[in-house]
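Obj: model holo form, ligand = uridine-5'-diphosphate.
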Amino acid sequence: MERTLAIIKPDAVSAKHTGNIIDIIENNDFNIVRMYKTKLSKDQAERFYGVHKGKPFFQELVDMMTSGPIIVLALEKDGAIKAWRELMGDTNPANAAPGTIRNLYGVSIGSNATHGSDAPATAAQELAFFFPDL
Ligand code: UDP
Ligand code: MG
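Output (holo structure tokens):
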């Protein structure tokens, strides 16, 4: 069984989409291994998104991710990394397929409802960031 890191971002938490997104996760047969609510510090957000440092949207991304509480989840399923990326849809909600989470709950590329690890190495790194006991 593969594991991936999912985040319900501040825009979706403040819009009260948490329950609906967890429903989608469970309806798609992911096992929620761990889950908690937290608020990122600027330092944590900058470290978590370190790969994007220097890009034009970096500051906006850090500001958005620290703007309110988030829900972090360790998800488990066969092929979890790809399955969760597909369920989220395209990074830009305007391009996200109908029925995907970003199509349903994303409002813009900067406020796109959820995060998902993009590969096995990043999933391991991101899971360790939020769930060091796993
Ligand atoms: N992002 C943004 N503007 C861009 C590209 C990305 O605000 O032009 C934000 C967006 O919220 C995205 C996050 O930065 O989810 C990380 O970007 P990435 O390319 O890794 O997209 P993801 O893996 O989240 O689909
Ligand atoms: Mg990414």
